[in-house]
Design goal:
One of its GO terms (molecular function) is protein-disulfide reductase activity. The protein has about 110 residues and is an alpha/beta fold. About 35% of the residues lie in helices and about 25% in strands.
Length: about 110
């Protein structure tokens, strides 16, 4: 289960929670059947705790919320997208190491 610092984003709340956020947002697009998604889940939890207050971290289940992944061209999962001021700063696809995820985050801080 995700830590208390990891938000659940949906097609319905994405604009309010992500696009209108006053701090950068790291979004993990995932699915329950995706093994690499499960592999990076603990890393996403750790990042959410370590960067609490500086970035917002959340997940979008692509099976339950197909609209948002389609809008952002998500074709493979896990896809992690970093947004700042409602715009995509960068994105990566696949299970990546913590150092690469932190390098991504630093682009928005």
């Amino acid at each position: 289960m995700a830590s208390e610092n990891v938000h659940t984003f949906t097609d319905d709340n994405f604009e309010k929670e992500v696009l209108q956020s006053n701090i950068p947002v790291l979004v993990d697009f995932w699915a329950t059947w995706c093994a690499p998604c499960k592999a990076i889940a603990p890393l996403i939890d750790t990042i959410a705790s370590e960067y609490d207050g500086r970035i917002k971290v959340g997940k979008v289940n692509v099976d339950d919320n197909p609209g948002t992944p389609a809008k952002y061209g998500v074709r493979g999962i896990p896809t992690v997208i970093l947004l700042k001021d409602g715009k995509v700063v960068d994105q990566v696809v696949g299970a990546i190491p913590k150092a690469q995820l932190e390098a991504l985050i630093k682009k928005a801080l």
